[in-house]
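## Example record

The block below lists the input lines for one assembly entry, exactly as stored, with component labels intact.
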Amino acid sequence: MAEFTTLRDAVSDLVPDGVSVAMEGFTHLIPFAAGHEVIRQGKQDLTLIRMTPDLIYDQLIGMGCAKKLVFSWGGNPGVGSLHRFRDAVENGVPRPLEIEEHSHAGMATRYAAGASGLPFGILRGYKGSDLVQYTTVAAIACPFTGEEVAAVPALNPDVTIIHAQQADRAGNVGLWGITGVQREAALAAKTVIVTVEEVVDELDRSGPNHVMLPHWTVTAIAPVPGGSHPSYSLGYSKRDNRFYTEWDRISRDPDTFRKWVEAFILDQEDFSGYLRMVQDASAREEVLGG
Amino acid sequence: MAEGPAHTADEMMTVTAARHLQDGQVCFVGIGLPSEAANLARLTHAPNVVLIYESGTIGTTPDVLPLSIGDGELAETADLVVSVPEVFAYWLQAGRVDVGFLSAAQIDRFGNLNTTVIGGYEEPDVRLPGAGGAPEIASSAREVIVMLRHRRRAFVPEVDFVTSVGFGRRGEGRAGHRGAGPTVVITDLGVLEPDPATYELRLAAVHPGVDVDQVRAETGWDLRISEDLSVTDPPSPDELEVLRALKARTEAAHAG
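Predicted structure tokens for the full assembly:
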């Protein structure tokens, strides 16, 4: 049963140190506010799960919150490297990071198996790829035809966190546009936290497909307007492509990165403070040196 | 004729790649160069090409090029948007994709692609982004078009890591895969195609003004040259105009 709460309480009550957390959203609806709150509360030893670590996990990894990363594509889309992720893998900075990597199709299959209550999922994949030697995948034969396919273990995060456009007062979650892997990630998890742009009296009921997750599959809901920035929430905000480009400069050097996190995340009460800061060119210049 | 080059090497590469897409084909598109080429095709000779991005947007017709595979523009102009598990399972894996467009940090003589690490896996010199959708695109699309800039550090005898298989480390071929693999590699210097007997990539065409020695110098193995080596047609005024307008719109949109 979904309980309405604040993001601060949800993270403090439901995300203890050492758990596995999936913060999903495929480019669209990335739950950045939740990532910031986890950093603010100084959570440690997390196993972070996400198809595309993106800036949200670059921030968490750079602050040393993660001991392990499970992922399938770790770049800054259209821009280049995730520098904090690279520094952790290449140099163990700020701490060594264990990695378990898959292909997108493999990760999607793992979440779907987790949501289905199955021990593993199957796909036609990985064939001829060196990934086979380094990750959790096994070849199995179809019991009916003998065809060889790949098996990958189910993913069942302790906690899944997503951002959605709306929840109604009963806690039903409305999410539309690029829906990514959110339903699978949520149904695969033991605990589900959803941040939303707004709480409405009634979701759009013009068709039966508007509820992404019914209230009885969700643990906690916290309203965080703008909570996906610099990702976006279709119908509410646009992707801040300029910020994604600028992240390259913010994150390249560990000291500049640290200064940015202190000013934009740690010194802020909550995500609304961050949203004011990113609108403020002088705050940006102070960190980046003009 | 005006002085100086009428087009850049990158423009020649994009135009050449766009020409390889046929009208009506279903194309699974990666971000960056492939996205530019696929949309150029759609805006010129192939208005009915169906573009699929791995974010689940199917039949999308963006007015500007997306920076990421999931920009709002892609969802808003798509025929349908499906979940990520669905786009890989029902659409790619099931064999509904004619052409997969891929790029890489390294490619070897047998068309294997590396987007994972430079150096060893456990202690990499450079950690690259990783697999994304590429291994299954490489395996399941009916054919694969590879696009990347022709540099010696990218065209290596053997890739450090096979992320996505072409014809295998020793050129074994495509047994066990549904798709034909990389049928063409398009660079800013020319076009390479696999030898039908040995699967080794050989130079099939050079772009105007490029000589074979230059291509050899930028290739890390002893590059064989096709007996019917041709010279690519330069970009037409129409191709260049549409490409430049698309890039100008994109730049203006992303600066905003």
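Chain A has a mean pLDDT of 96. Residues 226 and 275 of chain A are 8 Å apart (CA to CA).
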